[in-house]
């Protein structure tokens, strides 16, 4: 439900200017629905790729530990499956790319697709 609401807000805001929305969207169906709501031509699915062990290692707030102790219900990757995107527009593999490399790859994609001008 949250993803649907955010997709509708993004659609409204994107009528006048580009909008970037970052969400955990674990289910293929939700991502497909968001693409339909926003418009296939304006929706870009970026898969921020990172293995579960690396996510747990990077977790400074201890959320994964809490989820493993069942203190957090429906935590993505622990109690709830994450459906890996099968055909995202862009993949940023954070285990192979630095933050700077990931940002540059995203900017290059946006420039090459005439979504930003520089």
Features:
two-stranded parallel ribbon; about 5% strand; mainly alpha; 2 strands; about 120 residues; 5 helices
Plain-language structure description:
The protein is mainly alpha-helical and 118 residues long. Helices cover 42% and strands 7% of the residues. The chain contains 5 helices and 2 strands, in the order H-H-E-H-H-E-H. It has helices at residues 2-13, 28-38, 52-58, 63-68, 99-112; strands at residues 46-49, 90-93. It has a two-stranded parallel ribbon with strand order 1-2. Helix 1 packs parallel to helix 2 (28-38). The longest helix is centred in the C-terminal third of the chain and has 14 residues, at 99-112. It starts with a helix and ends in a 6-residue tail after the last helix.
Chain-wise SSE layout:
Layout: H1 2-13, H2 28-38, E1 46-49, H3 52-58, H4 63-68, E2 90-93, H5 99-112
Parallel strand pairs: 1-2
Helix pairs in contact: 1-2
Q: Report the mean per-residue pLDDT as an integer.
A: 89
Cα gyration radius (Å): 16 Å
- Total of helices: 5
Strand content: 5-15%
Given as residue ranges, the uncertain stretches (5+ residues, pLDDT < 50) are none
Proportion in helices: 40-55%
Largest sheet properties: 2 strands, parallel
* Structural class assignment: mainly alpha
Q: Tell me the span between the first and last alpha carbons.
A: 36 Å
Strand-and-helix sequence, N→C? HHEHHEH
Q: Give a count of the beta strands, DSSP E runs of length 2 or more.
A: 2
Strand order of the largest sheet: 1-2
From the spread of the alpha carbons, the general shape counts as globular
